[in-house]
Amino acid sequence: MTPFNVLLVALSFGLSARAQSYSATYLPSNAPNHSEKGQTGTNKCGTAANQTSLCQNAYLNSLDDFCLFAPPKPGKGSDIGDSEQIEVSWCMNDGYGTRLIPDGSIHGAHFVQTPDFVQITGTGDLTSLNIPKGDEGGELDPHGADGNGNPIGGLVFSSAFGQLEQLHEWTNFMSSTEFCFRACKPGPKAPQWCEHVYDLLGCEWNMPANYAAGTFEQCLGDSGLPMGVYGSSTFEQGAPHTPPPHPIPKSSSCSKMSTIKNGAIVTSSSILPSTTSASVSTTTSPSSGPSATAAGKSSGGVLTIALPGWERLVVTAGALLIGSMVGAVIVL
Ligand SMILES: *[C@@H]1O[C@H](CO)[C@@H](O)[C@H](O)[C@H]1NC(C)=O
Ligand SMILES: *[C@@H]1O[C@H](CO)[C@@H](O)[C@H](O)[C@H]1NC(C)=O
């Protein structure tokens, strides 16, 4: 076959397949040092927490087992908008090779698991995660202007839907006082439930939920409505009139904790393991897993476009290109 034919075969192969495609899928145990070009941190994180870690693997498992992306260092240039490409993972639990969220930073947290996503929302003093005081923040997602994500190479894992797995679609808003992080169950509608184009509209518009301080709870919930979708019309950020947020979806089976903590005494630059606690850190790390699987089943990105966001178009083109390249390899 000529290269041109190979490309055509690859493309049609892709078009008949699944709605989304990703160039690779990882587990923490097989993730490479860098999953994206231009990445400043790492996905090969080991297990020991460390307040200077550059780990960019985040976990979203439960009320007391979640991570947030935040700047690697404090000070000038660390506004979320300025540091989004290089942010690192801060977690409630040891065992992931990330930094730990210092105890007391989170003032209220609400974890909800729905049929389509898991989500944590809340408030806190996130200056202890190097976010400058007063920073109104911004949005992180795996797409970014260059398609490599913000942070570049950030990966999200969860065992909420079964075995620990990578959740490719996620969105995380961070400011100095508020956070929200949603990661979506793999499936054709994941990009919609984790839509990332409304990056100027903040947590409460994108992820209507409980944000109250003083409460730490975990619930089951309905998925509600995908952000930006109002009946048959889809709002485009920047249009003259911004519609109100969707109502907070119903939740049930809530359980509460008085607070959440990791038991380690950490400041933003050091960890002093607590001599007494040793309570938490029962994390599972699968002993084996599929190695990075190339999913050349591309193209559906095109079919699922609801909004002509330019980021989306870049991503789609990239996915097609990767799909066709992998397809070409398979054909050969
Ligand atoms: C792994 O990534 C880190 C952070 O980007 C970098 O400092 C280190 O040199 C990399 N290690 C290897 C072996 O490439
Ligand atoms: C934390 O990680 C840094 C490298 O990022 C390393 O130099 C340091 O020794 C580690 N600290 C501990 C306590 O493991």
UniProtKB/TrEMBL annotation:
<protein>
    <recommendedName>
        <fullName>Carbohydrate-binding module family 13 protein</fullName>
    </recommendedName>
</protein>
<keyword id="KW-0732">Signal</keyword>
<feature type="region of interest" description="Disordered">
    <location>
        <begin position="276"/>
        <end position="298"/>
    </location>
</feature>
<feature type="signal peptide">
    <location>
        <begin position="1"/>
        <end position="19"/>
    </location>
</feature>
<feature type="region of interest" description="Disordered">
    <location>
        <begin position="234"/>
        <end position="253"/>
    </location>
</feature>
